[in-house]
Design goal:
- The protein is mainly β.
- 0% of the residues lie in helices and 50% in strands.
- The protein has strands at 6-9, 13-15, 26-30, 35-38, 42-46, 50-56, 61-64, 67-72, 80-86, 90-93, 98-101, 108-117, 123-124, 127-135, 139-146, 151-153, 157-166, 178-182, 185-190, 200-206, 225-227.
- Strands 1, 2, 4, 5, 7, 8, 10, 11, 14, 17, 18, 19 and 20 form a 13-stranded mixed β-sheet that branches. Strands 3, 6, 9, 12, 13 and 15 form a 6-stranded mixed β-sheet that branches.
């Protein structure tokens, strides 16, 4: 979906779904300021299938009327889902039951956020706005990617998911207030950042190596700049 297109789906929308006992993998990419509106539920990867939905670019939007599932399967029929949001794109799942990763045991889900120039000269990440933010009993992973050549300042904060309520679950690879490395940068991940009303999953760029700069106090060194590897 590109070229500032508009797509409206009145009912449920499945990206990858099982038909009988046959896996039906699927992918959707939305770019260039296009918009997709789903009137009811959006399922990215269901049952024994794999689904990938990617959005990029300033003004690119996805609006979900009720539930947004990334990896939605049943016991013995695991699903694999990836929601990739980057460079100024926005996902809105605020009207219904919100955002859920890896609903059932065996499900695999990935929340991938790409930081880069969204086409306006501003460096930004993708953003998901959700009424609720939760996890099922499967395995969900968080990924951050930084476009090659992009310069980030120590102390830069990227809001990844802005939500009203959170079920307390975690991405399997990132605990609350944990420091992780992605794309050659170190980020502090905060699931409940008080700077944003206590309702946001954020990633803050911090110095690397951390120990050499005396712990998290090094965040004050705003003059430090790092460039993503090409």
């Amino acid at each position: 979906v590109s070229g500032a297109s508009t797509v409206n789906v009145d009912a449920d929308f499945f990206v990858g779904g099982e038909v009988g006992a046959v896996a039906g993998d699927g992918s959707v990419t939305v770019t260039d300021g296009s918009s997709v509106t789903v009137g009811d539920d959006l399922y990215i990867g269901t049952d024994i299938s794999t689904g990938v939905l990617s959005l990029f670019g300033a003004g690119t939007t996805l609006t979900v009327g009720d539930r947004l599932y990334v990896g939605w399967g049943f016991a013995g029929f695991p699903a694999t889902g990836t929601l990739e949001v980057g460079r100024g794109a926005v996902v809105e799942a605020t009207a219904g039951e919100g955002l859920n990763y890896a609903d059932a045991g065996g499900d695999q889900a990935t929340g991938r956020f790409v930081i880069g120039d969204d086409g306006t000269g501003t460096v930004s990440s993708g953003l998901i706005e959700a009424s609720t933010f939760g996890f099922g009993t499967g395995t969900a992973m968080l990924e951050l990617a930084v476009d090659g050549g992009v310069v980030l300042d120590v102390g830069d904060v990227f809001v990844l998911i802005d939500y009203n309520t959170w079920d307390g679950g975690l991405f399997a690879n990132v605990a609350d207030d944990e420091i992780v490395s992605f794309s050659g940068f170190q980020f502090l991940i905060d699931y409940n950042d008080a700077a944003f009303g206590g309702t946001a999953l954020t990633a803050t760029v911090i110095p690397e190596p951390l120990a050499a700069l005396g712990g998290f106090a090094g965040v004050a060194l705003i003059g430090l700049r790092r460039r993503a590897k090409v």
